[in-house]
Amino acid sequence: MSEPRVSRPLPEADGRMQPFWEAARRGVFMLQRCKRCDARRFPAAECCSNCLASDLEWTRASGVGVVHSFVVIHHAVDPYFASRTPYVVADVKLAEGPHITSTIVDSAPSEVSIGNRVEVAFEATSETIRLPVFRRAV
Amino acid sequence: MVDPAGVNRAVSAQAIVGLGLTPQGRVFDHGYAGFAVRAVELALADAGLRKQDIDGLLVNPGLSWSNPAMASVALQRALGLGDLRFSLSMNIGGATAAAMVQTACLAIASGLATTVACVFSDAPIKPPRPGGGAKSASPYAMARGWDAAYGYFGVNPRYAMIAKRHMHEYGTSQDHLGRVATIQRDWARDNPAAEMRDRPLTLAEYHSSRWIAEPFHVYDCCLVSNGGACVIVTSSERARDSARTPITVIGFAQGHPAGDPLETLTTGATIAGPAAFSMAGISRDDVDVAELYDCYTFTVIVTLEDYGFCAKGDGGLFVDSGATARDGALPVNTGGGQLSSFYMWGMTPLVEAVIQLRGDGAGRQVEGARIALVSGNGGILATHSCLLLARS
After folding, report:
1. Yes or no, beta carbons of B151 and A125 under 8 Å apart
2. What is the CATH number of domain A15-136?
3. Inter-chain touch A84–B151, beta carbons under 8 Å
4. Overall fold of domain B6-126+224-239
């Protein structure tokens, strides 16, 4: 049996999301855009679910949105998160339309409300992953 | 749009003649296969049929099945059944049980089979080990990719996220969620199969119970159970010779809504409900008892709205009024549901509907129950199935 993992579980920075993570390392927030119908989407898909095109690109996004909904997690099995409860998981509706699952930093759970205007920030979580998080806009 | 007339009447004129339910909950005398075999054996005995009478087999494998793609083949072997004329492993999550009954009706109406067993079983809870308690349900964790980086694991917080938005949009309150939990716990006390039958729950206890994913307390979330359940469907003609009162399938439909449930706050009941009522030629006012899929308290609230039992957004107020409780206008989840009886996915509401329509509910029997609505729901409000059942 291996020792319990205590590092944050992180996605692989390769595959379809590779350009996203490359941009994130430079502090740039991107969304996938369909070159045929201009629909924006997140997370990345292989084909556009609107017009079914395969010709998708990454485009710089505003990184601003509003808290559409959120939960406060009080019980986590994962060893990294188990010691960090209670913590917020938020659904942020981005200005461009897509929703993104993330968290709200620099605010206590009790300070987060639906409708909060938020902007993206990046947390250096590993050599390859700078993870987008959101901060309440002042 | 489906043809509302003759064809659908023929398709839906089949009946449930057998019901099998194994012991439920923290029971360890079988694995998933043994629970499935036992459930079928109980259903056959209930129906007065022999296993040779079964020529169709539909299986909804729970999460512990090792080869879910071939579940119906594995169960055919495990039951030692003869040649089958119809066999499917099915999965649209919690909407599968009602969908299995629908599929059985279609197969029988079209002559593919005469008598179809619809089966669910699961054994996600591991037996207690010396020095440690029973270990539950790692299959329900579903950790992966993007969401895991934010500690967004499993199904609980995803429904909680939608519930939170519903509370914001419509004024649904923590009390409303709690009322679903306490009312169903009250129903469970007269259900001998209910895991929580001896555990009364007050609203104060609900509010002081531990949070899982706020706004969900532990009592907003369904149980996790080991066990099996089976119903046997046959033609109404054959059902006339049945040992038990046949329960006729008078209408059914599915609805799998497009869009993000965080935006729509809506289930597929808005699609399936009108179609099922149209097929049955009845209205929602004719429903005597509703057995609604209740993975969470919130699911009951939103499902009541989407069938039109109250206005959109008023599901919490409707429950708070007492309408779904004993002596209420619309008894809902009369066995305690998955919150308080047992978690057999879509089989839980289906089993209780059959019990009520047979008049076997004893202390929880709804007087004169003649028509039941059964709903199934899967994914994150992604799939929905509806059955309308009637006492023949």
Report:
1. no
2. 2.40.50.840
3. yes
4. Peroxisomal Thiolase; Chain A, domain 1 (3.40.47)
